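sry for the spam today, last one i promise. C-alpha cells for design, 599 residues
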C-alpha cells in the first residue's frame, strides 16, 4: 500500500435530483466496484423509502481503485451526500472527511438554492471544487446558459467545466482523470500516534454499532484497543474494512483513508459523530474540534391510535434512533390522545420520513399533532423557558415576552413567478433582504419566521411556481413577536393536540378556519357539539355540529302547543343535556390532520 500520495477523498454535492447518486453509480461501474449483475440504479440508496422517493437520506461511502492514464493506481473514497435541506447536517459531516468535492449542476435546470448552500459548506471546509455539468444529453440542456449562471451566482471559473451524462456514462473517464489530477491527496502521517475522526455510525442487527471513520494520523489495526475521546470509553476493535460498496474486511486502515470498524458496541449513543478516536492510553494527542450536535428544529407529538400499541411505538422509536442520531423523542401524556411521545426533527421532510418508516417497518397507526418550533419565553419573575409544546404554555399574565426563531431563506425562481412568490412570503410575515437577477432567474433573500414555513410553505411555493422555484434556509436568530396560543375546545373540553401558537393578527382567521373544518369532519352525535376557538378565556370563533333529533310528538294527534307535547319536548331536552354532560366526542384521525392544514 502506498502512502497518502495516491489516495483521493471526495464527496458529490448538488441540489435534489441533479444526479449525484447516478454519477456515483457510473463511477462504481467504471472502476469495477460491482459486477454488471450486482449493479442497479442508485445502488447507494439502500433504504426502500430512498429508492421510491428518488432522494438520498443517509450519506453513503464507497472505496474504489482506479488505474489512471499515467499508469498509477489510485484509491478513491467517494461520499454520496443528500441534497435536501433537512439533511444538511449529513452533508456537513461528510464534507469534513474529504479534501475535494464534485459540484454537480443539471445542464437544463441550472444553479438551484441547495447547490448554493452545499457549495458554501464545501468552501467552509477548504475543498477543491470540480464543477460538473450533468444531463448534457437532454433536449432541454443549455450548457452555455448554465456556465454563465455558475460564474455569476457561484463565482467559479467554468473554462474547464466537465460536461457529462451520468445516465449514459458519457464523460465519466474525464471525471476520474480530473479527480486524480486536480484534487489534493490527504495530509496524514502513518508514523504518528493514532488519531481518527468518527464520521457516522449506525446499528446493524448482527454486528452491533458500525462506525465510519476517517484516519487522520497513524494506522487503525484489527485487535487494537482504542478510546473515544468525548464519551471516554475504551473498546477493542473486532472487525475493520471498507465498502466497495459491499462490506469488505481488511486488517488495517491507513492514514488519510476512510473505512469502517466494529467493536461490540451495543448503543449508538456511545458513538458521537465528530468524536476523536485515539489509542486507549494516549492522553497527549490533541483531539479534533468535533461537530456541533444537530439541533431539532421542528417538534410534534406522535400518539398511537390504539392505546395498547404504546409499548410497540416506544420500541420502534428506540430502533429508529439507533440509525438516526438527529432524531429526538421523550414521553408525554395528552388528555385527548393518551400516552405518546414528543419528537424533535430537523425539518418537515425528516418528520414525514420518520412517520412513514414507523408505518411501513413497524405497522403502527399514528396520530400526529401540529408541528411546532421552539419558542423562548421570558416570564414576569425574570426566569426564561424553552417551549416545545403549545399545550404547556403558561398563563398569559405570567408571560413578559415570547421570542420565535427566524430563518434566512434563499429562493431561486424564474422571474415570471416573482410576484406570487413575494406575496406568499409577505403573507408569512417575511421581510425581504435582497433581490438579484442572473439572466431570467431571480435570487430572492428573505427573513421569515420558522413557524410560518414549518407546515405548508414548501408545498405552496412549489405549486405557485409550477415546481420551478427552489428553496433553502438556515436558522438565523430569535426575535420577539406578538404570539398567542390558540386553543380548540370540542364540547367545552380543550383538545391539546390541536393547540397551536399563532401571531395575534392571524389568530381570528385561523381559529374560524379550524372550527369550520372540524364541523365538516366530526360526525354527528345524539347531542349538539359546540366547537370553539379561544385565546385564553376569550372565545373568538364558534361552530356547532347539530345532534340527531327524534320527533317525539309525532304520535300525538291534534294541533296546538298542549301540555303533553311540552312535557315530552322538555323531557327530550333534559335527556340531550345529560347526554352532552356524560357523552364523549370521538375526533377522527383525518380531522386532526385536515384541521392543521387549513389556510
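last one done:
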Amino acid at each position: 500500500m502506498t502512502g497518502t500520495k495516491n489516495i483521493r477523498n471526495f464527496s458529490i454535492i448538488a441540489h435534489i435530483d441533479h444526479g449525484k447518486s447516478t454519477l456515483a453509480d457510473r463511477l462504481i461501474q467504471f472502476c469495477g466496484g460491482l459486477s454488471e449483475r450486482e449493479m442497479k440504479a442508485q445502488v447507494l440508496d439502500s433504504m426502500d423509502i430512498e429508492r421510491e422517493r428518488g432522494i438520498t437520506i443517509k450519506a453513503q461511502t464507497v472505496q474504489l481503485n482506479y488505474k489512471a492514464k499515467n499508469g498509477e493506481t489510485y484509491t478513491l473514497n467517494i461520499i454520496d451526500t443528500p441534497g435536501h435541506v433537512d439533511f444538511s447536517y449529513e452533508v456537513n459531516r461528510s464534507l469534513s472527511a474529504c479534501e475535494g468535492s464534485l459540484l454537480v449542476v443539471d445542464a437544463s435546470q441550472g444553479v438551484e438554492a441547495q447547490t448554493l448552500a452545499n457549495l458554501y459548506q464545501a468552501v467552509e471546509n477548504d475543498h477543491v471544487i470540480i464543477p460538473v455539468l450533468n444531463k448534457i444529453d437532454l433536449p432541454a440542456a443549455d450548457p452555455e446558459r448554465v456556465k454563465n449562471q455558475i460564474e455569476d451566482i457561484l463565482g467559479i471559473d467554468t473554462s474547464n467545466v466537465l460536461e457529462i451524462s451520468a445516465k449514459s456514462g458519457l464523460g465519466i473517464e474525464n471525471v476520474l482523470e480530473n479527480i486524480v489530477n486536480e484534487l489534493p491527496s490527504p495530509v496524514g502521517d502513518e508514523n504518528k500516534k493514532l488519531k481518527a475522526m468518527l464520521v457516522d455510525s449506525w446499528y446493524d442487527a448482527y454486528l452491533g454499532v458500525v462506525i465510519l471513520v476517517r484516519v487522520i494520523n497513524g494506522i487503525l489495526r484489527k485487535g487494537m484497543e482504542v478510546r473515544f475521546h468525548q464519551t471516554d470509553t475504551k473498546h477493542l476493535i473486532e472487525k475493520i474494512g471498507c465498502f466497495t460498496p459491499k462490506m469488505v474486511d481488511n486488517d488495517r486502515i491507513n492514514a488519510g483513508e476512510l473505512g469502517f470498524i466494529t467493536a461490540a458496541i451495543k448503543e449508538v449513543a456511545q458513538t458521537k459523530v465528530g468524536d476523536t478516536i485515539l489509542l486507549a492510553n494516549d492522553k497527549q494527542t490533541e483531539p479534533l474540534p468535533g461537530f456541533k450536535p444537530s439541533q431539532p428544529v421542528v417538534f410534534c407529538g406522535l400518539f398511537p391510535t390504539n392505546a395498547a400499541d404504546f409499548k410497540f411505538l416506544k420500541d420502534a422509536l428506540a430502533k429508529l434512533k439507533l440509525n438516526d442520531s438527529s432524531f429526538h423523542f421523550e414521553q408525554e401524556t395528552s388528555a385527548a390522545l393518551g400516552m405518546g411521545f414528543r419528537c424533535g426533527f430537523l425539518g418537515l421532510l425528516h418528520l414525514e420520513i420518520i412517520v412513514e418508516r414507523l408505518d411501513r417497518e413497524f405497522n403502527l397507526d399514528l396520530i400526529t399533532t401540529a408541528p411546532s418550533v421552539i419558542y423562548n419565553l421570558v416570564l414576569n419573575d425574570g426566569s426564561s423557558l424553552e417551549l416545545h409544546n403549545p399545550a404547556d404554555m403558561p398563563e398569559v399574565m405570567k408571560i413578559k415576552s415570547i421570542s420565535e426563531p427566524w430563518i434566512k431563506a434563499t429562493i431561486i425562481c424564474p422571474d415570471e413567478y416573482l410576484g406570487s412568490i413575494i406575496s406568499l412570503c409577505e403573507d408569512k410575515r417575511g421581510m425581504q433582504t435582497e433581490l438579484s437577477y442572473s439572466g431570467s432567474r431571480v435570487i430572492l433573500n428573505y427573513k421569515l419566521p420558522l413557524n410560518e414555513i414549518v407546515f405548508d410553505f414548501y408545498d405552496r411555493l412549489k405549486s405557485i411556481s409550477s415546481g420551478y422555484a427552489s428553496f433553502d434556509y438556515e436558522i438565523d436568530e430569535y426575535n420577539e413577536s406578538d404570539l398567542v396560543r390558540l386553543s380548540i375546545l370540542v364540547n367545552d373540553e380543550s383538545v391539546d393536540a390541536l393547540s397551536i401558537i399563532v401571531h395575534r393578527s392571524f389568530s381570528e382567521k385561523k381559529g374560524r378556519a379550524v372550527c369550520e373544518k372540524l364541523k365538516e369532519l366530526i360526525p354527528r352525535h345524539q347531542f349538539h357539539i359546540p366547537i370553539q376557538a379561544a385565546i385564553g378565556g376569550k372565545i373568538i370563533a364558534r361552530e356547532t355540529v347539530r345532534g340527531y333529533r327524534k320527533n317525539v310528538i309525532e304520535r300525538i294527534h291534534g294541533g296546538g302547543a298542549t301540555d303533553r307535547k311540552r312535557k315530552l319536548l322538555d323531557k327530550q331536552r333534559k335527556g340531550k343535556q345529560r347526554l352532552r354532560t356524560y357523552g364523549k366526542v370521538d375526533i377522527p384521525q383525518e380531522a386532526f390532520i385536515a384541521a392543521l392544514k387549513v389556510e
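Residues 563-582 form the longest helix (20 residues). ok im logging off now
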